[in-house]
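Item description
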Amino acid sequence: MAYKTFKSVACITSASILLTACSSGSDEQSRYATLTSTEDRVSELGGAGINRYQRDGKGFYGNAIISGQIDHGNKIIDITSNDLTIIDENGFDRYGNISHNGITLTNETRSTFDAQYDYVNYYYYENPSDQIFDRHLITAGIITREDDVPTDGTAVYHGEAAAIYQHDSYADTFHYLNEGTSTVTANFGSGLVTAELSNFASVQDSDRNALSDSLIDSIIVRDMEIRENTFFGRDIEIYKDGVEINFIASSGSGRSHGAFFGYDENNQIPDEVGGVIYTAGSDSYVEAVYLAD
């Protein structure tokens, strides 16, 4: 479960002296509305994730780029993830889903994680057919404005994580890793973000039967590059009992894409973070998602 009791923030002075707190931004307290706000205002939506798609029998994946707006007072949501656009004139349903013309971005936050987040949710969309297969795994919400992302100091966010991995060498090829923790360290001075996902308390096989152990127990993505209010990287490490393992084939590749959400006016930093990790080879793959505040 996520906990909001600690953010480590450092502000760098012109003399390069590290301080433990930033000045208060009390005049900025109302600049960001939460996702569930009913205020008469409009907020910019954004986020990041992974889009997997198939064309002519060939599979591809890339960054999911999120944009849009939410009219809180009128409950109108306009959100785009790459070539997928949904305009929901009724707002979130009781489960936090976004729907229009038979297409639904399913809010997986409640079913995947214990905590509820103010500015970000984890969404899933899949459209399989004979000709086309699209799958969006995204973290989306009230995006932090680019000017509100610091250029110095460090913040540490704590939250939750979940993952799926497949390895064809084993009978139960899919393992679901749930109830994990995430620690996300954003070094705004260097422009780099590192995310560590671990402590998965629940492991299940393809049929959702409980397992006592898993072949992997932690995932680390190092030195993701901050790009305005998102971050991106490819340095993905997978561990078991503290030892790095490599079950991804030599032809494998991967990426992680995340974003900053909302604003912590007391520390003058983004309030929440979220991201998706995907790495694959010829015989295996790992998908993971994390939210933290």
In short: Residues 109-112 form the longest helix (4 residues).
